[in-house]
What does this fold into?
Amino acid sequence: MEQAINANHWVLGVDVGGTFTDLVVTTKQGKLLSTKTPSTPDQSDGVMNGINKIAGLLGVNQETFLADCPLIVHGTTVATNTLLEYDGPKVGLLTTEGFRDEIEFRRAYKESVFSVRLQAPHQIVPRRYRIGIPERLDKEGEIIQALDEQAVRDAVHRLKAEGIEAIAVCFLFSFVNPAHEIRVKEIIKEEAPDMFISLSSEVLPQIREFERVSTTIVNAYTGPTLQSYLNHLEANLQKNGFRGELFVMQSNGGVQNVEQTGKLAAGSLLSGPAGGVSAGAFIGEKSGNENIITVDMGGTSYDVSVIEELQPTITTESWISRYRVALPMMDIHTIGSGGGSIAWIDSGGALRVGPKSAGSFPGPACYGRGGTEPTITDVNVLLGYINPDNFLGGEMKLDRDLAERAIAKYIAEPLGMTTMEAALAISQIVNSDMSNAVQYVSSQRGYDPREFALMAVGGAGAIHAGRQAEDLGINTVIVPALAPVFSAFGDVAANLKMTELKTRFEDIDTLNLDDMNRDFEQMEKTAREKLGGENIVGHFETHRYIDMRYKGEVHEVTVPVRSRTKRITRLNLEATIKDFHEMHERLYAHQDAEQTIEILNLRLDLIGVREKLKMADEPFGKEDPIEAKTDERIVYFEPDPVTIPVYDGAQLTSGNLIAGPAIIEQWGTTIVVYPRQEALIDANGNCVIEVQQVRGGNQ
Amino acid sequence: MIEEQIQYSKLQAISRQMGETLQRISRSPLVSQDRAFAAAIFTNELELAVQHQFKPEHLFAVKESVAHLFDYFSFDISDGDVLLVADPYNGGTKGQSLTMAAPLFYQGELVLFPVIRVQMIDLAGEFPGGFHPNAFEIWQESMRITPIKLYKQGLLQRDVLKFLLANSRVKSLYEAELNAMYACLRAAQTQLLSLMKHGKKQLDHAISVMSDYSHRRILEQIKQFPNQDMHSELTFNSNAEVINLHVTIKALKDRLKINFEGTSKQVQTPVNAALSTTKAYAVWPVLAPIAEEVAINEGLLQAFDVVVPKGSVLAPKFPAAVGLSTVITGHYIAEVITKALKNNDTADDLYLEIHGPGPQAILFPPFGKERETEPLFLAPGFPESLQGWGPSALFGDRKLVSAEELEFNYHFKMVKREQKDKQMIIQIINQGASFDVITIIPEKAGRSYGEIKMDTKENNLVLHGSTVGNRLNHGDEIAFIYERGGHQ
It folds into this structure.
């Protein structure tokens, strides 16, 4: 993958993960270059190290590289880590008097409904920092109690004296009329000019106070750290010759500039994974698959997301680190099945896998770092799928005996099986768990997985994907050539995106079309002002949506508005209503044309479309992959072993056809081509596996 | 067991999805917000294959309601039939909770049937919603739906539907709920058919193996109990009645015997508990510590033998009223069980208190005037559990109403929802037309489970018991006070 190129105007994607910082560079000629470097405690150090490394690979120095780089898109976990590790700044909350405990009551959301031992979530705003302010609006936005400005000033003084660095403000009905919140912002600026301020009417101007206050608090908690990090990184880049624009991947799959990202840190909580999903859509389009289910199997988790007609699905129902974040985000469903997930037997004698993980330290038993319990990685080593001598391209040696011992002791002996039977059983269980997750995600969204291709990324994703495809009745598995740096690639490929939202709580029958059009126009104007990126955007696209539901339902469906014109006509609206009924039918097997429809929100996505990323197609060469064959290996698909060929992924070329069973090894990823499957290396180096459905799919 | 685990996990997913879809498409706040429903799949031998529930009350009622349905229609079930029953004296818990079953045929043979059980918005009874604090007979609470077919061989029975709708004060919502339940069952049938393609025998075997597994898991729990009788008793009040619950628990080799001999006779108030209610709340404290690890199925239910004297408050004779049993008596049943378990040292750490009844109100416009009268079930807070965090385990998966949505939808302005000391206090002002109010508040000597205050133009009321007949006019305030775990 790594090859020198001689062109400037590089576009750089940098994604910082827990272990590695991944970098991808593209040129206008469609060449790609990628590399990895260890992540560092200050993520910007890893980024700069990576830039230095990739500049070296290009044969230029860092300054030259940066001077010729008009755009860097960055996926960062700074906001996520702040929330996961609860190491954000001290945050205060100003809210309508009488409602300061909403964040603690959480509308009675409890992760384990019937648990008697569940501990309270960590309070990122302790009660003493939550202050009720006398004020009140009604549902029309009319002021029925004036804002007590002195109370605001007193509260700010108090919070300031307590060392508070960020203040979240969330008043009831501020999504209808933000006047009180705006005035509070002015007062805070007067009293505490350096304070980070997070207004609910700016962060999430929509109905339901708990969802709003939680998102606003999260924004206040993650904002200062992210803002400081990005400013520091930008300054560092500029110091080293960067004159272009730094953008950050957002949870909604678009990218935004540093200023906007700092203001809406809660919008970048899924910055890394969102890059991967964006990349999935791009590779899907290149490979002629518009409908994709991406699965990313890392060390501790397995992430599933759905891309329909090249559009990743979006959700507003996310919880992160036990906090509700109701901003639109890539819909990524996670279960605790990763390479480090531990297999165990419960007290009823059932074999389980995860969610407990060995993590990276001590890690799986085969790492030889003291881990004794069997993990998925141990199973894959024992079954012969992972080459213990060539893990991470040989950078790390694995101990097969330790893997075998762990599986024998903890699983095989208690269950009265041979070690190999136990390993196959663990593999079956974890495949089933992952297939169930894919089935859950697709059917929850009204899709049939058989109509999708499965795209596998992450270290172990492509080991298991072939089995899941059989189980789910999926015909095609795609393992992208850039799988090891997939999120960074997605960063490079993504467009700019700004989402605006306005609550309009009314029946559709009484909707005033002119009012709605005015709202959409204003939303577009606001989005345009915030989006920026004039230098890198080719053109803008506007997508409008209406959140609709049958009167009485509590969950809404986001329906795209089909309109070719700027103004939505009555006819457009009727088509949208028809679409709502059909979407409702697809999602829930139920529609009711007689029922009153309620509108909850208007949504608008302004997309700044960048010049399409070019990927040069390689002409198809020989079909026979023999030149890439490096070895033969004994593996176990069933209790009886088979000897199968092993190929070096780096040596495979476009047009190579590999009949299963076979193994393809490449840095960071192992691909298992199962019996009755066939893998083709396509024009972009992606491995496309066709799956023969002899089992017919289990779903 | 590996293959069986895998097959069974797919069955569990279908049952779970039935419930989740219902919650999403339901227009009744009892389902979408209060999550007062359960979803299950049965075998053709009437064995519970898997059940998901969002409130404990349905634990036994789904199975026992289905048993009544199939007793009645034993030789008269066809492909496309949809069966209904809602009767505390036919396996149910209270009259407003409806069980709908859709037998699934594969290659001409009855193989499985998915079932949904839902607390409906209103079906007859003296007051909208079916909660009547002074009821002494069941007809004051609801109509009884004995086993009937809503669909016969795929054809909607319009006469049956019309009859049902004609007896609901909220016809449109009732019909929408029936449609939603039907849609979820149909979707589940499609998924189950897909699963059947891999062989009925394998699936039956998987269900049987995993039923044994659940049985083993629960017996593991039961084994921890001492080999001696565990007793406890508890007294609570209902109107002027003083009610004693008495329980003896004995761990046997193959089951847990829970015996309520000595419990008070049935009373002339609606705190009598139908047998399914009693069983559910008696078993749930034992189940709660592992409820999220072990599938609810036949094997699990068979590990419990609940003995209740007929004619007692926990197994009343027809036609005693039972409407408040799930919101009041159930909590006391759980409390007396936990108390018995905690009376021996070994179980002390394992069995924490899971009950936590609190006040709630049912509001409705003065009825008999409009064609439709929709009750509003208002429980805007919760009593925090004594141990752990959040609402108690018996609160189920209910969600609190949003203050903003309450104002938009019902013209009630919430002015406060905050904690003070160990209380959660919610104050709400009526900004719309007049409402009649039914309050439901558990009563027990020496212990407060919260109160409801009504600040009206006529008077200020502080209510500590269940009442009917108060009115909340425009501008009046109603306040709910929840005590953490019940205040001693």
Remarks:
- Chain A touches chain B through 63 residues (CB under 8 Å).
- The first strand of chain A starts at residue 11 and ends at 16.
